[in-house]
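Quick question, first post here. What does this chain look like in 3D?
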Amino acid sequence: MSVMLRVVLDQLVTETDPDLATASRELARALVQAAPAGCDVGAIVPSGPQGLDLPGVAEIRRLGMGRRELAAAWQLGVTAGAGGGLIHSPTLLAPLVRHDRVNDHDQTVVTIWDLLPWEHPGEFPRPAQTWFKGMLKRVRKHADAIVVPTHAMAHRLGELADVRGRVRVIAGAAPAGFAVPTDAVGRRRTLGLPEAVILMVGDAAASAALQTGFRAVARSGADLPIVVVDVQEGQEPAIVDHAEAAGIAAHRVHVRTGLDAGDRAAILDASTMLVAPSRRSAFPWRVIEAMALGVPVVAAASPEHREVIVDGGILAGDEVDDSQDADALAAAIADALSSTAALERLAVLSGDRGRAFSWREAADRVWQLHADL
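> Answer (accepted):
Ran it through. Tokens below.
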């Protein structure tokens, strides 16, 4: 008799976040590849487009409601059609209800990639705030394990909710096969980008972190164009204003949204370095991708960055006091750009650290987690 691990893949039907969709797809593929003898992988999906490009998935259980309705139902504990058994969600969305793990062998595991909905609730619409708050309550009551990508996030989650003994750390990775595309030059031309840039990571809000990053670049003396990614559409004027306020001419700033993995790799190929000024509790996907390609990384010191980057880049500033972040980042950028040898050394360190992350390893650990449960 085979054992089936069923993975919630709502993001592959109705994508709400590109990184969550990528994580869901990559983990599902790796789980299929890593499946122990006598084990299969199934999928739980909402109604929607019929095609799921996931070879090796033994069963697809398509529920009778769309993702929005499914999220509302599961928030209330209405899980008709989801079934029991071993359920793993690469996101927070999961059928969390009372179940018997010992006698019925039912397990439900969820994944939390960032703590922004609880640490910065004002950045989310009121319905989203209510949903995240309600789902965390259900996690606290019914999840057999909660996966987070860093030990720092595990510690912080323990402060937000009583999840004692149930948190497991399993990091994500760059998409499988993430590499500079053969048409990288053409992609950059299509995006209207120059051939040598500093890549800066934004976040969902045009926040103080970006302002810090712009001040740091300005104070470092670097005169390269700046490409900003990971920001919401429509924020371009505000971001350019932040750059000009820091003393950076508007023509040097290129804000790009809606990039696929190939576009991001093409931009990294032209990047002298990646600057990550945010200190928020979120898995740094772009830092992971930069290290996968051996791009030098300069990041604001934070518990997440320190744990993910280790010695694969430069960590600047103080994790507790962010008042000097701009000056610390500026000094780090200037040091990195001080010579070709300095950049080459950082590139080697970045590439070495990047090899520590893989979806196959993540899948192996997920299978082991369910076996331990």
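The longest helix spans residues 18-34.
The mean pLDDT is 94.
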